[in-house]
Amino acid sequence: MTTRRITIIGAFVMAGLTLSACGASVKQTITSALHSIGSQPYVQMHLTASVSGTGAASTYESVLSKLSYDVSEQSTTGGPIDQSNGHVNSDIVVNVSGTPLLHLVQINDTLYVKIDFSTLTAFSQLSSTLSAEIPTAQLTFGDRWFEIPRSLLTSYLPTTQSDAQTPAETAAESKIIDAITAVIEKNPYSATSNGFEQTGTLDTLTAGVAPTIAALEHQTPSTVGHTPGTYHVALGLNGATATSASLGITAQGMTVALNATVSHDAIPISAPTGATIITPALIQSLGGSGL
After folding, report:
1. Chain-centre distance of CA 68, in angstroms?
2. Helix (H, G, I), strand (E, B), or coil: what is residue 271?
């Protein structure tokens, strides 16, 4: 699923750190860690991001500190999510200081949406014009479920892609993972209380990955210049199952970090009740009203 792959982008790098503990190759360890994400009928993930430092970092630091992202998936076949061939319901929430701003639920081919515009008042960075429009938006659309049938989505987005990964995407992802794990394998890493971590230079990471990316883009590899800065990755484990991951990059006085936790609680996903069905006629009426 796309949502899970987004999370894995920030997590798959860390799986190779378990090499010495598992007695397996880096590739085997990463394959096992990735498989653990979708190897059960349920999965929940919580993501946060942060930025710190001087200059541009100060602009985004307070915004990111308030935001978090939750995604939950449930296989409708009762089998592992990775083997459900698209038969997966999902529940996605964007939070502001722990309160849902945007809530999306996908049940089969139907999408449900709820927005709480009032949570935006937590951001002092909003212009006075936008802040003044929040009460009207909340009164008109806020904190209400809207149902969007797939037929309506495809009428406006006729080129929507399948959520399934193509063989080409899978092959490209595998090659990038191999390149990153080769970097991890060649550099020191250390054990933590529940997993492993590693700190290295961006020069090392860039030099190890750049040739693979150039090959995937059918370009001739070029000489990689100096990339000042460092990266830090960490992986938390419960046995062979990934439970947390983090990725941080420090460069030019700024540190950007992504943190994720993973669990597999049996939490069912169901359609909300009392949703207003969005139809073409309703959209036209809203457009005519100037909203």
Report:
1. 11
2. coil
Q: In sequence order, what DSSP letters do the residues of 158-177 get, joined into one string?
A: TTPPPSSPPHHHHHHHHHHH
pLDDT at 162 over 80: no
Number of domain units in the chain: 1
Phi, psi of 269 (to 5 degrees): -115, 125
- For 278, which DSSP code? P
| Cβ atoms of residues 73 and 41 within 8 Å | no
Q: Output the CA torsion 200→202→204→207 (10° steps).
A: 160
SS3 192: coil
Reported residue count of the chain is 291
3-class secondary-structure state, position 107: strand
Q: Degrees (nearest 5) of the Cα angle 199, 178, 163?
A: 105
pLDDT at 165 over 80: no
Bridge partners of 110? Answer: 107, 149
Question: CA-to-CA distance for 244 and 12, rounded, in angstroms?
Answer: 11
Type of residue at 154: T
pLDDT of residue 199: 93
Q: Where are the alpha helices (DSSP H) in the chain?
A: 2-9, 19-22, 26-37, 56-66, 128-141, 150-156, 167-186, 202-216, 280-288
Q: Is the dihedral of CA 163, 165, 168, 169 positive or negative?
A: positive
Residue 161 in tokens: 């892609």
Domain, as residue range, for 247: 2-288
CB 282 within 8 A of CB 291: no
The per-residue pLDDT for 36 is 87
Burial class (CB in 10 A: 0-12, 13-18, 19+), 223: exposed
Q: Residue 248: beta bridge partners?
A: 232, 257
Instruction: Tell me the whole-structure pTM to 2 decimals.
Output: 0.80
**Residues 107-146: tens digit of each pLDDT:** 988 999 999 999 999 998 888 999 999 999 999 899 999 9
Q: Which amino acid is at 56?
A: A
